[in-house]
Amino acid sequence: MIAETVCSAVSAAGLGIAAVTAYRKRFRAAARIAAYALVPLGLVMTGAVGWLAHTAFSPVAWAGFGVLGAAWLLFAAARAVERRGGGTRKERKEARAAQREAVAPASPAPASSSAPALGTGGRAAVGPADTSRKATAKDDFSDIEAILRKHGI
C-alpha cells in the first residue's frame, strides 16, 4: 500500500515538472520527463509494484536471489578455469608436449652446433660457443648502429 502511494506521488511530481518544462517551451524535454513520470504509475496499475513489495519482504525470495548469485559465481569460476587452460592433467601435459615438439623437435643437434650445450641445472656450458654468441651480438649492434647513422640519428 505504501509503495503504491509513493509511486503515485513520484508520477504526479514528474508530471508537474513536465508541465512546467512544457510551459517554458521545451517540449521535447517535457515529453521525455512525462514518459519517465508515467512509468511508476503504469507499474502500480499493472500490479507489478505490489508483487515487487511482497517479494522484497519475503525471506524465500531473498534466498532465491542468493541461490541465483551462487549459480552465477559458479558459472564465472568455471569460465575462468576454462580460459586458463583447464582440463585434465593428461590433456594439459599432452598439449605442452605438442607445443614443445612444434617449437623445438626432439632430433639431436649436431656436435658442431653454435648453440651452447645445457649442463646440469639448466646453465650453459662455458666454452667457445659463448664467444661466438658474443660476436654475433656485436654484429647485430653494428648493423643497428649503421642503420641509425644512415638515418642521421
Describe the secondary-structure layout:
Blueprint: H1 2-23, H2 27-46, H3 48-56, H4 59-83, H5 89-103, H6 128-150
Q: How far apart lie the N and C ends?
A: 79 Å
- Biggest sheet, open or closed, and with what strands and sense? none
Query: Please, how many helices?
Result: 6
| Share of residues in helices | over 70%
Range of strand content: under 5%
Radius of gyration: 36 Å
How many strand units?
0
Mean pLDDT score: 80
3D architecture notes:
It is a single chain. By secondary structure, this protein is mainly α. The chain is 75% helix and 0% strand. The protein contains six helices and no strands. The longest helix has 25 residues, at 59-83. The radius of gyration is 36 Å and the shape is elongated. The termini are far apart. The mean pLDDT is 80.
